[in-house]
Amino acid sequence: MTTHQPPAPQAAQPTWQAAAGASYPGYTSPIPVVRTHLGHALASEWTKIRSVRSTMWTLGVFVLLVVGIGLAAGALVAANASEGDLNGENPLSFGFFGLLLGSMCIITLGVLTTASEYGTGMIRTTMVACPSRGRVLAAKAVVFFAVAFVVTLVSSSFVAFAQVGMLSDARDPSGGEWFKATVGVSLYIALLGLLSLVVGSIIRHSAGAITIMIGLLLAPLVIALFMFSESLQDLREALFEYSIPSQLSVFYATSLTDSGPSGWDPLWIILGVTAAAFAGAFALLQKRDV
Amino acid sequence: MIEAVGLTKRYGDKTAVYNLSFQVRPGAVTGFLGPNGSGKSTTMRMILGLDNPTSGTVTIGGHPYRKLPNAPRQVGALLDAKAVHGGRSARNHLLSLAQLSGIPARRVDEVLGVVGLQDVANKRSKGFSLGMGQRLGIAAALLGDPQVLLFDEPVNGLDPEGILWVRNLMKALAAEGRTVFVSSHLMSEMALTADHLIVIGRGQLLADMSVTEFISANSADFARVRTPDTEPQLREKLSSALTEAGGHVLPEQDGALRVTGLPLPRISDIAHEADVRLWELSPHQASLEEAYMRMTQGAVDYRSTADQKAGLQQPLPPGAQPPMPVPGQGQPGWYAPPPPQQGGQPFTAPQGAPYGGQPPAGPYGAPGAAPAGQPNPYAQPAAPAAPVAAPAAPAQPAAPPAQPAAAAPQAAPAAPAPLTDAEPKSEDAR
Q1: Smallest Cβ distance to B74: which of A7, A21, A51?
Q2: What is the tally of structural domains in chain B?
Q3: Which residue, among B45, B59, B84, B96, would best test binding to A if mutated, counting the most A CBs under 10 Å from its CB?
Q4: Using a CB-CB distance cutoff of 8 angstroms, which residues of chain B are in contact with residue A109?
Q5: How far apart are CA A43 and CA A112, in angstroms?
Q6: What whole-number distance in Å separates Cα of residue B210 and Cα of residue B215?
Q7: Are residues B232 and B86 in the same domain?
Q8: In which band, very low, low, confident or very high, does the pLDDT at B220 lie, cut at 50, 70 and 90?
Q9: Does B138 lie in the same domain as B7?
Q10: pTM of the prediction?
Q11: Burial of residue A82, with CB atoms counted within 10 A of its CB: 0-12 exposed, 13-18 middle, 19 or more buried
């Protein structure tokens, strides 16, 4: 499992030697010195993310939730719907529930990718091996985003195909609907995970960061549910519309409300929030002590 | 080459490291010593660019760590044996670090072999013992085959074989021309490994010198003199004669005398003139531990106190004595003061020499306050023995605790307290 990397050609290249260590007298290593870049950090982060069990657990539960709930919802609807009930319905929209629950797994994995290094002290080893801290955060973000996107895309596409097959009464989704319900929603979930990763880097504490992200996911909806006062009507509407579950449902064109974000809006919103948080995390990382 | 200039680190209003300047040269093992909480790890973190100094700079080969080209190939560090993700196998842990530093992956198996972890390479490091964790940390430090190596407490938790291995490893690394900077609490280990010492206390530099210089500067080599056990009055006679001749006499627990400031032949002459027979007259070379303890005893932040068990013990029967506390090494004053001529200031003692100049050790001779001929002070069962013994020992001002401790707060065990209390106050006042 360690040999996926081809052993770098070395030992036969004496010209590489003494490239950097020669600034003052002393020992010179025979191992060739290479200038490191983001690619090295990406390989390292890929090794890290695939070599811990929490990745397998969180992604395994994620796939189980998305596929399990998606198929169960599809089967239930198919079994109980009477003739004509599903006319004009988008069959892809039943993938929503699985992804909503599954997003918590992606949040957890995102937080753990950064915060667990602080919890274990591994971050000090990492930062000694790579003093350019921004590169480490960037590599983590890229690797995690790719993993989260691919896993979400595969499981949401599988569920989409299965549901279209099961709900033969419903209308055939358009190409645009297909695209939003697979690629679009996967980008959204992966960005949500990336936001968690960034929050983990800011908070540096796994449990704290996970709590914050779960709160962000659920609190607006729950708070809005209990806003009975007439004077708070507008705030309540906004909380409903911009809550993450509501934004997620926009990808299936079954928004919980009729106003608020629509089309690809949720993607731009989370992209902006994540970018802002990333900039903050980057600045903090440069400034703070590890 | 590591070079620190005016390095200072504050956390809030606590100053962890203050105005520290030193150089660590290649080709030697440099020991980094200091009591717990003296700022050793903070200094190491600043060297590695993990913590930003509040003021001052520290450079490696002329560059601050975070600006160092190919940093992991020039510097390797073991900071904390448990600074690994416990769920990752040893090999994957090292592999991720190798990839991050652009080191060929097969180097991972090499260093695993060097530290002897090849058999557990695929086990998750969560199950590693402290010693195995240390070995993994050393493997990570050696991964880049670097020119500069920092080890924070490398022998913690290692078995004797591992300690020997680390000792030889450090020496071998230094012999290859590398810079090796090692912190440790194990003085015996440092005495064997290090060539040069940097000692800090409360975040300030106490000493920066070679090991042999350090020992001779901070430990009065003393003579141990023993008079016949059967005749305690000879002992008193000799100690007053030696004191008169300018020597410094400290009674030891077993009845011997510790004499500083007089050469051995002179002691023999004085004893002869005073007509005192000697059972022992031996030179004593102080150890590094002793020298270190003496130097840092004023700079120790965390010092144990006696376990009083207040209110939990049954009241002693009237007339009975509480047992004497074990005279602790490392309690203030246990080690002899520097010889009068040599002084204790080979190093730059900061701020009016709070650490260097020792007060006269008179009252602190108390731990050895056992009447001659009774080597075991704990064997004294009855109270009357003590008052009898006290006048017979004029060289020991602090009388043995004759009353129950509750009735005598000023009893002997409390004697070291004024020093312990006064020191932090003078520190805080600055």
Answers
A1: A21
A2: 2
A3: B96
A4: none
A5: 18
A6: 9
A7: no
A8: low
A9: yes
A10: 0.75
A11: exposed
Query: Is the CB of B147 inside 8 Å of chain A's CB atoms?
Result: yes
Residues B248 and B157 in one domain: no
Domain assignment of residue B388, given as a range: 219-304+321-429
Query: Is the separation of the CB atoms in A223 and A124 below 8 Å?
Result: no
Inform me whether the C-beta atom of residue A165 falls under 8 Å from chain B C-beta atoms: no
Q: Which of B172, B195, B216 is at the close of a domain?
A: B216
Q: Is A118 on the interface with B (CB under 8 A)?
A: no
Q: Are residues B65 and B180 in the same domain?
A: yes
C-alpha to C-alpha distance for B76 and B71, rounded to whole angstroms: 8
User: A184 and A139 in contact (C-beta within 8 Å)?
Assistant: no
Q: Are B150 and B48 in contact (CB under 8 A)?
A: yes
Q: Which of B216, B238, B256 is the last residue of a domain?
A: B216
Higher pLDDT, B37 or A199: A199
CB contact under 8 A, A29 and B91: no
What tens-digit pLDDT sequence spans chain A (290 residues)? 444 444 444 333 333 333 344 444 678 888 889 899 999 999 999 999 999 999 999 999 999 999 999 999 989 988 887 766 666 778 888 889 999 999 999 999 999 999 999 999 999 999 999 999 999 999 999 999 999 999 999 999 999 999 888 887 778 888 888 999 999 999 999 999 999 999 999 999 999 999 999 999 999 999 988 888 888 888 888 888 899 998 998 888 754 556 778 888 999 999 999 999 999 999 999 999 98
| A159 CA to centre of own chain | 19
Q: Where are the beta strands (DSSP E) in B27-184?
A: 28-33, 55-60, 75-78, 148-152, 179-183
Question: Which residue's entry shows tokens 């697979």?
Answer: A182
For chain A, give the number of residues: 290
Q: Is A29 on the interface with B (CB under 8 A)?
A: yes
Mean pLDDT check: name the lowest of A102-111, A187-196, B108-117, B333-342.
B333-342
Phi and psi torsions of A131, nearest 5°: -65, -20
Q: Which of B51, B73, B96 shows the shortest C-beta gap to A21?
A: B73
* Other CB atoms within 10 A of residue B349 CB: 19
Question: What pLDDT, in 10s, does the model give residues B266-277?
Answer: 999 999 998 888
Q: Cα-flanking dihedrals φ and ψ of residue B29, to 5°?
A: -90, 120
Q: Do B50 and A289 touch (CB under 8 A)?
A: yes
Q: Say whether both B244 and B99 belong to one domain.
A: no
- Closest-CA residue in chain B for A10? B104
Interface test with A, best of B100, B108, B111 (most A CBs within 10 A): B100
**Residues B419 and B363 sit within 8 Å (Cβ to Cβ):** no
Quote ipTM for the complex. 0.86
Structure tokens at B2: 């590591």
Q: How far apart, in Å, are the Cα atoms of B133 and each of B40, B91, B271, B337, B361?
A: 20, 13, 57, 40, 43
Burial class (CB in 10 A: 0-12, 13-18, 19+), B160: exposed
With contact defined as beta carbons under 8 Å apart, do B151 and B173 qualify? no
> Are B28 and B88 in a shared domain?
yes
Do B50 and B82 sit in the same domain of this protein?
Answer: yes
In angstroms, rounded to a whole number, what is the distance separating the alpha carbons of residues A64 and A50?
Answer: 19
Looking at the fold, whether B287 and B348 belong to one and the same domain comes out as yes
DSSP A25: S
Looking at residue B309, its pLDDT comes to 75
Contacts B125 to A, Cβ<8 Å? none
Q: Within a domain: residue B315?
A: no
